[in-house]
Amino acid sequence: MERTQWNEPPGGAMPSPSRRTVLATGSALGGTLLATGLPAQASAADHGADHGSAPSDAYAPSTSSDPWRTVLDDADLVWERMPKTWYEGPYLGNGFLGSGIYAEPGRETEAVRFNIQHSEVQDHRPQFGSLFGLARLPIGHFTLEPVGTITGLNWRLGLRDAELTGTLTTDRGTLTIRALIHTTRSVLAVEVTPSRGERDFRWVFHPADAISPRAAFKPVPPGYTGNPPAGIEQHDGVSAAVQPLLSGGQHVTAWRERTLGSRRTLYVNVAHSYPKSTALRQALATVRATVLLPYDALALTHRAWWHAFYRKSFLSLPDARIQRFYWIQLYKTASAARRDAPAMATSGPWLEPTPWPATWWNLNVQLEYWLIHGSNHLELDAVTRSLSEFRDHLKAEMAPAYRSDSLGIPRTTDASLVNGGATDPVLGYGVGIPGQDPPTPEVGNLVWALHNVWLSYRHTMDKSILRDVLFPLLRKAVNYYLHFLEPGADGKLHLPATFSPEYGGNSRDCNYDLMLLTWGCRTLLDSAELLGVEDELVPRWREVLAKRVAYPTDANGFMIGADIPFAKSHRHYSHLLAVYPLYELTGDTPDEKALIEKSLAHWVGFEGALQGYTFTGAASMSALLGKGEDALSYLGQLMARFIQPNTMYKESGPVIETPLSAAQSVHDMVCQSWGDGSSVIRVFPALPAAWADLTVHDFRTQGAFLLSAVRKGGRTRWVRLVSEAGAPCVVRHGIAGAIEVRDGRGRPLRFTDVGGGAIQVALRKGESALITGKGDRPDLRIVAVEPNEEAPRWGLPAVAP
Question: What distance in Å separates the CA atoms of residue 204 and residue 207, rounded to the nearest whole number?
Answer without folding.
Answer: 10
